[in-house]
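Notes from hallway chat w/ T.B., transcribed later so I don't forget. T.B. wanted the structure written out for a chain they're using in a teaching module, and asked if we could keep both sequence and structure tokens in one place. Agreed to drop them here.
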Amino acid sequence: MYLINYTKILRNLIMKKVILSLAIGSAIGYFIRKMQEDGQFDCVRYSADKFLRKSKRDLKNVADITKNEAEYLKDRLGNVVTKGK
């Protein structure tokens, strides 16, 4: 008898928590959507775009520097081998 009452109480508490969590999640989603429509997150998007563009440019620069350095070493090695013969 007591076990049945405790399981009912626990089930009710769990359901209340689930319903409360869903309501809070829905409210937060609604407010985030309204903020997005009002343009509150535009600065974040622009900052992320700027960061990604800079990262892409820096990565290309590193690749170019590495390629140039490899060509330089290849030429130096060719000159050393040619002088050695």
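Follow-up for T.B.: Helices lie at 2-37, 42-84. Might be a good example for the class.
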